[in-house]
Automatic annotation (TrEMBL):
It comes from the Eukaryota. One of its GO terms (cellular component) is membrane. It is a single-pass type I membrane protein. This is Transmembrane emp24 domain-containing protein p24delta7. Belongs to the EMP24/GP25L family. It comes from Raphanus sativus. Pfam families: EMP24_GP25L. SMART domains: EMP24_GP25L. Keywords: Coiled coil, Membrane, Signal, Transmembrane, Transmembrane helix.
Length: 213
């Protein structure tokens, strides 16, 4: 049991320390929409930056290269919305656990154009720009590392409580399911006995009418 708990905690620490960032570059056709989801836990901070890649660096971005961006919570609350932009950023603190969705819609244009979008989405301790926090002096560098470790420990603590809550929910669900299955079994048994009784009564009545018994 102790070995299993230690293994679980170790895996949890590794998952927290691993890069919790979503960085990508993808193409979006004009008049189309593409959505990206990220699971964020309650009270976790999340930041995102997006921009349209200029196909010709020596020239201004074409007027057709505009997008509409919307960030929503699992319940549909809008955290960020920008219309007709080429670059932008957002930040939020999750008030509920679930999949948060960022949708990019390219402005309709004829003839059709293809936009290349850079998108960087960071969650938790990775949403903080530690390069701006760290200072040049050795003491301030150590203080910055301590703050970073403290945030990591806090994230691990929150993650463990989240997993414990999920475990309790699954336990209650199992108990509820087992109880329902037990009642269903008794109900099925009652139905079977009732059908058997009706068949016996029907056969007995039939044989009595035929004077076979």
């Amino acid at each position: 049991m102790d070995l299993h708990r230690s293994t679980t905690i170790t895996l949890l620490i590794l998952s927290i320390l691993s890069p919790a960032t979503l960085s990508m570059r993808y193409e979006l056709h004009s008049g189309h929409t593409k959505c990206i989801s990220e699971e964020i836990h309650v009270n976790a901070m999340s930041v995102g930056k997006y921009s349209i890649v200029n196909p010709h660096e020596d020239h201004p971005l074409p007027a057709s290269h505009k997008i509409t961006v919307k960030v929503t919570s699992p319940q549909g609350t809008v955290y960020h919305e920008a219309d007709g932009v080429s670059t932008g950023h957002f930040s939020l603190t999750a008030v509920e656990t679930g999949d948060y969705i960022t949708c990019f819609s390219a402005v309709d244009h004829k003839p059709e154009t293809v936009l290349t979008i850079d998108f960087d989405w960071r969650t938790g301790i990775h949403s903080k720009d530690w390069s701006n926090v760290a200072k040049l002096s050795q003491v301030e560098n150590i203080e910055s590392e301590v703050k970073k470790l403290l945030d990591t420990v806090t994230s691990i603590h929150d993650e463990m409580f989240y997993l414990r809550d999920r475990e309790e929910e699954m336990h209650e669900l199992n108990i509820s399911t087992n109880s329902k299955m037990a009642w269903l079994s008794f109900l099925s048994l009652g139905v079977c006995l009732s059908v058997a009784g009706l068949q016996f009564w029907h056969l007995k009545t039939f044989f009595q009418k035929k004077k076979l018994i």
